[in-house]
Specification:
Helix content is 36%, strand content 16%. The chain is of the alpha+beta class and 142 residues long. The radius of gyration is 27 Å and the shape is elongated.
Length: 142
């Protein structure tokens, strides 16, 4: 005797197929959202490095016109050296603006390993730092 076969109605999916397709759809949504979140984090990290680079180079330009002295505050760079207001602040939680960390009182003759500018936030345990000699590095956050 031949086992009974289920009738498949043309155009309809079996319950098992619908469950499998639903699981595939859910997994796809989750993986896409993780991918998008990773992209957002990467863009924020890249922007933090760019901010520190611009500010470091702005400070070096200022020092070139002021006998090697870096500006007393980062605000002294605006608008003559840097005119993008968003460079001076990091985007914090809930859209708040947090000032970049600046170490005033240094000159181009200070120890080149001293940090001049630091991004206030870390990304993946690392953050961007600009040094007196103009180098910008991403280091482990402390």
């Amino acid at each position: 005797m031949e086992p009974e076969r289920r009738k498949v109605v043309k155009g309809r999916l079996s319950r098992r197929t619908r469950i499998i397709l639903s699981l595939i759809a859910v997994c796809s949504v989750i993986s896409v959202s993780w991918f998008v979140w990773d992209q957002v984090k990467m863009q924020r990290a890249q922007w933090s490095v760019s901010q520190v680079k611009f500010l470091t180079f702005g400070c070096l330009a200022y020092a070139g016109n002021h006998k090697g002295k870096f500006p007393p505050t980062l605000a002294a760079l605006h608008p003559d050296y840097l005119d993008m207001d968003e460079l001076f602040y990091a985007k914090g939680p809930k859209g708040s603006r947090v000032e970049m960390i600046y170490h005033p009182g240094l000159t181009t003759h200070s120890d080149p390993k001293l940090p001049l500018i630091e991004h206030p936030f870390s990304f993946e345990g690392k953050r961007a730092v600009g040094y007196v000699d103009g180098q910008v590095q991403v280091i482990a956050a402390q």
